[in-house]
Amino acid sequence: MPTSWSCPTCGKALSAEPAEVGETFPFCSSRCRLRDFGRWADGRYVVAGPTVDIAESAASGADDA
After folding, report:
1. What is the C-alpha to C-alpha distance for residues 40 and 45, in angstroms, rounded to an integer?
2. In Å, what is the CA distance from 35 to each residue of 12, 28, 39, 47?
3. Per-residue pLDDT tens for 8-35?
4. Rounded to two decimals, what is the model's pTM?
């Protein structure tokens, strides 16, 4: 584990340990946490994986859940 932490959104150094930061960890504030969430919601972040054709998947009745 790293000995120093920084906010992944703004890069600000965090002076406290993760347990001491509380619910905003790994972010420095609720604002940075919400900015990160907004980026996920806008589709700026994606999880890499194989491309799935939604129409084919629905037609075949495939369900990977």
Report:
1. 5
2. 14, 12, 6, 18
3. 999 999 876 767 767 888 999 999 999 9
4. 0.60
